[in-house]
C-alpha cells in the first residue's frame, strides 16, 4: 500500500502547553484510519494540522510525497467535516454544497450534476432548496459530508462527526460512512473518543493519549493485544493484574500458575496480565483455577456483569448465566485469552 | 375610576409633550409668516425654499454627505475592529471593550472638546475634514458593539470551513463571515447614520471655516434675520419620511405580514 500522508516529528504547543510531542504517523491510500483518545488529547489539533488550519511548531507534513507543511488550507486537496458541521446558514443546501466548486470556477452544469451526485451519496435527494436551519441534526451532518466529498478530495478528515447524533442514527451513520469510504476509494481520517465506534469502523486504529501515540494497529490487534495499561483500559473493559512470567509460556498471578501464549518475556520478569471480562469461563468449583465471591451483579441485556472478589481484589466478569450475590464462583481462563503486557521501567523499581 | 382617569390623563399629557413640538414645527412649515409667533395663512413656499436657499441647502447636503461617508467608513473599520476583537485572547478582551465603550458613555461635550484639542494639536484646519473624522470616530464604537454579538453567535468553525473549501483569507471573510454578521452590520450602520445626522455638539466643536451641517446651521441662525423657515419644512419632511419607513418596517416584520424578511 502507498503512503499518502506522513507526519514527521510534529511538535505543537499552545501557550507552553505541549499538545503534540514528536508525533509520527503514516497514513495509507484508501485507508479508514481512526484517531481515538480521551477528550483534550490533541485529536482535533492533529486533524487541523493535516488540513492546514493550524501551523506546526516543528516537523513536516508530507502529502503524496510532497512537503505541504507550509501550504494554506485552500491549497490542499483535503476536506474536512467539522465537529459541529459548520454549515453556512445564509446559504441553502445546494449553495452550501456548491461552495467549494464555485471557488474552483467549475461550470454551472457540472456543479449541478456534482451536487446531485453528492446528495444522492448521503441519501438526501431533493433537499437542494432547503434552508440549513430547517434540517435535523442528522440531515445537517449529511449535508456537511456532501459539501466535503463533492470536491473529490483525496483525504476526508472527519472530526467526531457523529458526536451529536442519537444512538440509533449514529449506528446507521457509522455503517453509511464505512460504505461511503469504500465507494469513494479515498482515505478517511476519522476522529472519535468512542472506542466502540473506532473498533467497528476502522482499518487502522490510532490510540492517543496526551499527545502521544499509545498504539497503532488493526481493531483486532488493539483489542486483543493492548500494548499498555492505558490502551487496555481505554479500549473496552479489562481486568489488569500484576503477574510474573515463569518462562516456558507460564505465568503466575493471584498465586496460581496459568498457561499463556506470550513468549517475549524474560524468566521471572514482572508483567501486567490483561483479561477481558468476557474471557473468563465460569466453571464448577472443583475445576476452577480461581475462586471468588460474587459481590454485585448487573443485568446488561445479553449478559450479566458480575463483580467478583478474588483475594480482596475486584474483578469484572461477563457471563450468560446468572449467579447469586455472595455465592462462590469458580473461574478458568483459556491460555490464548491471557494477554501479557510489559510493565513500564519506572513502575518496576 | 379616578385612578384610571389620572393615568389616562398623564399618558395623554406625556404623548402631547412628545409630539407637540413636532406638530408645531410642521405647522410652522406651512406658516406664511417668517416669525414663529404670528400666523399669516398657509403656504408651501418654504418647501421650495429648501432648494433655493443656498446656505441652507448646502448645510443639508453637508449633513447627508458627512453622515453617509462617516457611516460607510465607520462600518468598514468597525467590521475589521470587531473581527480583531473577536479573535483576541480572552485576557485582553475586557480592556479593549472598555476602550470601545468609553466614547459611547462619555458626554458628547467631552468627546467634542477632546477631539477639538487633538485636531488643534495635530495642526488640522477645521472644516469638512475634521468634522468627518470626528463623526467616523464616534460612530465606530456603535458599529463594533452591534457586530460583536453576531460574531459570537457565528459558528467558530465557519471561517475554517470556508478556508477548507478553498477560500483565501479575504474570500472567507467576504463570502462567509460578512453574510453571517449581515444583520449586525446593518444595525450598526443604521445606528451610525442616525447618530451622525443627529449630532450637534461634536459637530459644533470640530467644524470651522464656515463649514456647517444642518444642526450647526440652525444654531448659528436661530433668532436671527437670516433664519429661514425652510428649515421647518426640511424637518417636517424628515419626520414624515422616518414615520413612513417605520410603518413600512413594522408591516414587514409583523408575523403574518406580507413582506417577511428574506435571507
Ligand atoms: N487555539 C487554542 N489555543 C489554546 N489551546 C488550545 C487551542 N486549541 C486547542 N487547545 C488545547 O489543546 C488541547 C487539545 O485540544 P484538541 O481540541 O486537539 O483535543 P481533542 O482531542 O480534539 O478533544 P475533544 O475530544 O474534546 O474534541 C486541549 O487541552 C485544548 O485546551
Ligand atoms: Mg476535538
* Strand order within the widest beta sheet of chain A: 6-7-8-3-9-10
Ligand inventory reads: adenosine-5'-triphosphate, magnesium ion
Tell how many strands the DSSP assignment of chain B holds.
0
Mean pLDDT across the residues of chain B is 86
Q: How many distinct helices of chain B? A: 12
User: Quick one: how many beta strands of chain A?
Assistant: 20
Structural class of chain B: mainly alpha
Main beta sheet of chain A, described? 6 strands, mixed
Distance between the termini of chain A: 42 Å
Kindly identify the CATH topology of the largest domain in chain A. Answer: Rossmann fold
Radius of gyration over C-alpha positions of chain A, nearest whole angstrom: 24 Å
CATH structural class of the largest domain in chain A: Alpha Beta
Roughly how much helix do the residues of chain A carry, as a percent range? Answer: 25-40%
CATH architecture of the domain at 57-212 in chain B: Orthogonal Bundle
- Structurally, how many domains make up the residues of chain A? 2
The helix/strand class of chain A is alpha+beta
**N-to-C series of helices and strands of chain A:** EEEHEEEHHHEHEHEEHHEEEEEEEEEEH
Largest β-sheet summary of chain B? none
CATH superfamily of the largest domain in chain A: P-loop containing nucleotide triphosphate hydrolases
Q: What's the CATH topology label of the domain at 57-212 in chain B?
A: MetI-like fold
What would you say about this model in short?
The complex is a heterodimer of chains A (349) and B (263). Chain A has 349 residues and is α+β, with helices and mostly antiparallel strands.
Amino acid at each position: 500500500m502507498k503512503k499518502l500522508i506522513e507526519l514527521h516529528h510534529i511538535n505543537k504547543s499552545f501557550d507552553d502547553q505541549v499538545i503534540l510531542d514528536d508525533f509520527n504517523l503514516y497514513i495509507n491510500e484508501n485507508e479508514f484510519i481512526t484517531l481515538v483518545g480521551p477528550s483534550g488529547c490533541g485529536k482535533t489539533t492533529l486533524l487541523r494540522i493535516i488540513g492546514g488550519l493550524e501551523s506546526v511548531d516543528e516537523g513536516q507534513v508530507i502529502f503524496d510525497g510532497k512537503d505541504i507543511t507550509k501550504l494554506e488550507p485552500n491549497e490542499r486537496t483535503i476536506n474536512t467535516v467539522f465537529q459541529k458541521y459548520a454549515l453556512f446558514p445564509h446559504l441553502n443546501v445546494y449553495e452550501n454544497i456548491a461552495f467549494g466548486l464555485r471557488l474552483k470556477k467549475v461550470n454551472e452544469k457540472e456543479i449541478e450534476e456534482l451536487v446531485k451526485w453528492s446528495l444522492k451519496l448521503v441519501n438526501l435527494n431533493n433537499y437542494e432548496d432547503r434552508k440549513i436551519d430547517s434540517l435535523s441534526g442528522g440531515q445537517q451532518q449529511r449535508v456537511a459530508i456532501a459539501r466535503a466529498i463533492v470536491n473529490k478530495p483525496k483525504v476526508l478528515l472527519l472530526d467526531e462527526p457523529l458526536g451529536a447524533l442519537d444512538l440509533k442514527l449514529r449506528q446507521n451513520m457509522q455503517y453509511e460512512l464505512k460504505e461511503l469510504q469504500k465507494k469513494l476509494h479515498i482515505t478517511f481520517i476519522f476522529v472519535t473518543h468512542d472506542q466502540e465506534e473506532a473498533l467497528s469502523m476502522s482499518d487502522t486504529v490510532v490510540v492517543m493519549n496526551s499527545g502521544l501515540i499509545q498504539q497503532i494497529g488493526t481493531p483486532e490487534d488493539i483489542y486483543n493485544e493492548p500494548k499498555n495499561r492505558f490502551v487496555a483500559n481505554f479500549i473496552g473493559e479489562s481486568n489488569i493484574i500484576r503477574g510474573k512470567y515463569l518462562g516456558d509460556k507460564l505465568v503466575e498471578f493471584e498465586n496460581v500458575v496459568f498457561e499463556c501464549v506470550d513468549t517475549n518475556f524474560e524468566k521471572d520478569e514482572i508483567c501486567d496480565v490483561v483479561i477481558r471480562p468476557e474471557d473468563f469461563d465460569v466453571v464448577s468449583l472443583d475445576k476452577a483455577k480461581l475462586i471468588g465471591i460474587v459481590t454485585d451483579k448487573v443485568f446488561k441485556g445479553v449478559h450479566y456483569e458480575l463483580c467478583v472478589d478474588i483475594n480482596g481484589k475486584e474483578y469484572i466478569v461477563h457471563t450468560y448465566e446468572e449467579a447469586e450475590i455472595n455465592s462462590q464462583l469458580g473461574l478458568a481462563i483459556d491460555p490464548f485469552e491471557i494477554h501479557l503486557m510489559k510493565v513500564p521501567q519506572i513502575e518496576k523499581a | 375610576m379616578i385612578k384610571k382617569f389620572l393615568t389616562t390623563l398623564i399618558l395623554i399629557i406625556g404623548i402631547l409633550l412628545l409630539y407637540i413640538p413636532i406638530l408645531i414645527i410642521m405647522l410652522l412649515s406651512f406658516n406664511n409668516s417668517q416669525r414663529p409667533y404670528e400666523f399669516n395663512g398657509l403656504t408651501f413656499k418654504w418647501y421650495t425654499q429648501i432648494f433655493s436657499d443656498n446656505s441652507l441647502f448646502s448645510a443639508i447636503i453637508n449633513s447627508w454627505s458627512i453622515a453617509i461617508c462617516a457611516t460607510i467608513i465607520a462600518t468598514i473599520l468597525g467590521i475589521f475592529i470587531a473581527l480583531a476583537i473577536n479573535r483576541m485572547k480572552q485576557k485582553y478582551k475586557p480592556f479593549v471593550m472598555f476602550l470601545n465603550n468609553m466614547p459611547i458613555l462619555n458626554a458628547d461635550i467631552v468627546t467634542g472638546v477632546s477631539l477639538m484639542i487633538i485636531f488643534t494639536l495635530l495642526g488640522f484646519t477645521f472644516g469638512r475634514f475634521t468634522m468627518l473624522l470626528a463623526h467616523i470616530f464616534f460612530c465606530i464604537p456603535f458599529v463594533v458593539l452591534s457586530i460583536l454579538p453576531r460574531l459570537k453567535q457565528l459558528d467558530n468553525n465557519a471561517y475554517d470551513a470556508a478556508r477548507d473549501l478553498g477560500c483565501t483569507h479575504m474570500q472567507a471573510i467576504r463570502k462567509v463571515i460578512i453574510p453571517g454578521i449581515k444583520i449586525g452590520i446593518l444595525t450598526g450602520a443604521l445606528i451610525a447614520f442616525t447618530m451622525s445626522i443627529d449630532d450637534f455638539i461634536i459637530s459644533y466643536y470640530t467644524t470651522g471655516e464656515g463649514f456647517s451641517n444642518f444642526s450647526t446651521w440652525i444654531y448659528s441662525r436661530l433668532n436671527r434675520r437670516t433664519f429661514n423657515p425652510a428649515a421647518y419644512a426640511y424637518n417636517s419632511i424628515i419626520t414624515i419620511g422616518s414615520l413612513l419607513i417605520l410603518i413600512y418596517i413594522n408591516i414587514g416584520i409583523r408575523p403574518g405580514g406580507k413582506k417577511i424578511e428574506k435571507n
